[in-house]
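Why this split exists: single-chain examples teach little about how molecules sit against one another. For that reason, every record in the complexes split bundles all components of an assembly together and asks for one structure covering all of them. Below is a record exactly as it appears in the raw files.
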Amino acid sequence: MSDGTHTAAQVTLARLPSGVELTTTVHTYRGADPGPTLYVQAAQHGREINGTELLRRFHERLPLESLSGTVIAVPVANPLTFDRVSYTTPEPFDSINPNMNRVWPGDADGSLHQRMAARLWEYVTAADAVVDLHTGSPDMLPHVVYRAGDDRSRALAEAFGTDLLVAERTGDDAPDAWSRRDFDGKLRVTVAEEGVPAITPELGHNKQILEDVVADGVTGLLDVCRHLDLFPGAVPTRDQTVGRNHAGQVTATDSGLFRPNPTLEVGDVVEAGTSVGTVYHPTTYEPLHEAHVDRDGVLYTLTREATVTAGDRLANVALVDDENPGA
Ligand SMILES: [Zn+2]
């Protein structure tokens, strides 16, 4: 068996007004034997650094000598938001598209984010599967999002192996916010629409390297590679719950201080009517909003940032889907 190769290329994503070139590193692992191509990236939202750390450890563990096919890995897809430890890019850089994950497949002649995405898209188009690594808030259960009804993307999500899988409705099945928030410009959605399986792992929370979450993520990505036959080995069968997002949001109907229900933790199975907490008036102490879950499901976010404004999201409940993974 001959060895595969690893190369790390500095790729120019765009040019800044000063003339400074915005570059990032693209790692290519090429097996000696032919096989599929996996594209994986992290930190297009630059504060979501668990994916970047995951790819560093994946680099150390990837068995190059038994690789059949190609893995392309981009640890920092968006250096601008990475340096700013932010979710979006400041207005002077891209006032039209501040969120890079709304512009895919990008545009080489467009705004800064569109140009950056278009450059990376050249690698994405070579892929037979795509993993876009993200992280959520400090109060989010790790989960993997895939396009509802897309069996190949779901199989990737199952291989990644988080306890909760979230099937996201797209297009006509999606809630009203879908097109208003340009969700069809997400990398995962754009790729899946082209018939290529794609997933978005949401791993723990941003800004901090969470040891367990990163370790599970490395295992998950290695299992995705095994699922794609990039290298040998069986993917373990796991007990996973499939939920639906968007429909199960609990939002504040009033502004004040939110005290989450102290008996709840993310990952809990909750029933319709469960209180997720209370919004109080901070000076008169008057309870303003007792926030309830309106249906049964898995609590996968519960906000811990206490100062809330009416309309803010307090919790997310994934509605347990009738489709059963592995069935
Ligand atoms: Zn993100």
